[in-house]
Amino acid sequence: MSNFESTSLVPRSKYAPAVRRQIHDSPYNPVLHKGMRNPYTGQVISCESEYLEYQREYVYHRLCDDALRRQYSFRLRSISALLVALLLAVSVLLFWYIPRVREDSYQFGRSAGYTEGYTASENAAHSSGYADKGVKPSGSGNATLPRSGVSATTTVYVSRSGHKIHLKSNCSGMLNYDAMSYADALAAGYKHCSKCF
Predict the structure, then answer these.
(1) What pTM was computed for the model?
(2) What backbone torsions phi and psi does residue 192 show, to the nearest 5 degrees?
(3) pLDDT tens-digit series, residues 58-109
């Protein structure tokens, strides 16, 4: 038994039939094979037993190459599938998370007391959203003039991320809004929505 027959990479059940097939398909021919150099050992083949040893080594190396190719292609496919799944999970998470961060960034900045980058009217416009949190606006915004036909006690809707007064809660597809009286919205410095008014 050759030392090539005992390996976990190429099981004996595959190795022995492959050697028999190789020897059957390419039998020893002294005219063709005598004097040929065995590339695995470097020795010159001078008889049939050395040729058969060469054939066994050839079959072993070919089967090892096939087994390694299958192993690495399976690992590569597994790693690729894992990376695609990870990329998909990250993109779904970012698609879900980024809009919420943008939506809350203005309010977070104002509630933390930052005033840089906010105009006086923006400070006043968002003061009502922070009155319940104990945050006072730092700027005094320009007051909006009331419109005729709307009483001071009329309930209006103000988007949490916008600066407009709406008469309808679903104006412009608004989802997150606060309800307040028209007088309070004017005092907070909100502007009129061009669609509602």
Answers:
(1) 0.36
(2) -80, 140
(3) 998 888 888 888 888 888 889 999 999 999 999 888 887 776 665 555 555 5
